[in-house]
Design brief:
By secondary structure, the protein is mainly α. 79% of the residues lie in helices and 0% in strands.
Length: 207
């Protein structure tokens, strides 16, 4: 019983430590939470995608991706392109004298666009594959089968707790951050974060 609990807590702690870092997925969820626009949908999709990646890593897919130069390059360049494009759109919004848009605002993203963007940030994100599939998968592989299942469950629980907390917290703070200057600053920071992540990915590959 104690080894199982230990594996679960390790999975939760390591999973939380990896996911809390500011990244593209978290930045997008934060932005949607502040807009109060389809927050629950984004939280659910982020959690499901992360859970799927964690389980893929636990069954050994992470080592396959890490050992294939072609798959690694596809992940890096595809993810960087997505981040550059979306970061540019966010920076463009930062130049507009706008207020915080809610779900009924005319320029709010459609449900389909929200789903597409969330899946992109969750799946076309090399950092997610590196942290979730390769790293967590490698750690899970060190445990016996029963403990590996509990470790994986702990990591999935950490993702769910974080995404729910981030989405709810951002929505709660949205009235305070609804001023145009503050919102433009948020868009500026998020856009720069996305471009920085993309630049780091390309730099690491000698682009």
């Amino acid at each position: 019983m104690l080894p199982l609990l230990g594996a679960g807590w390790q999975g939760f702690g390591i999973g939380l430590g990896l996911i809390v870092a500011i990244g593209a997925q978290n930045a997008f969820l934060l932005r949607q939470g502040l807009r109060r626009h389809h927050v629950a949908l984004v939280v659910v999709l982020c959690t499901l995608c992360d859970s799927a990646l964690i389980m893929l890593g636990a069954v050994g897919v992470g080592s396959l991706v890490a050992s294939s130069p072609i798959l690694t390059k596809l992940a890096v360049y595809g993810g960087a392109t997505f981040l550059i494009v979306y970061g540019g759109l966010t920076l463009k919004n930062a130049l507009k004298p706008q207020t915080l848009n809610t779900a009924d605002a005319p320029d709010a993203l459609s449900t389909r666009a929200i789903v597409t963007a969330t899946l992109g940030f969750s799946i076309l994100n090399p950092h997610a594959w590196l942290d979730t599939v390769v790293l967590l998968g490698g750690l899970a592989g060190q445990f016996p089968t029963d403990q590996r299942v509990v470790f994986t469950g702990g990591a999935i629980l950490a993702s769910a707790v974080w995404f729910v907390g981030l989405g709810a917290g951002a929505a709660w703070l949205s009235p305070v951050l609804a001023r145009p200057k503050v919102w433009r600053g948020i868009d500026l920071v998020i856009g720069l974060v996305l471009w920085t992540i993309a630049g780091t990915l390309l730099w690491s590959r000698g682009f």
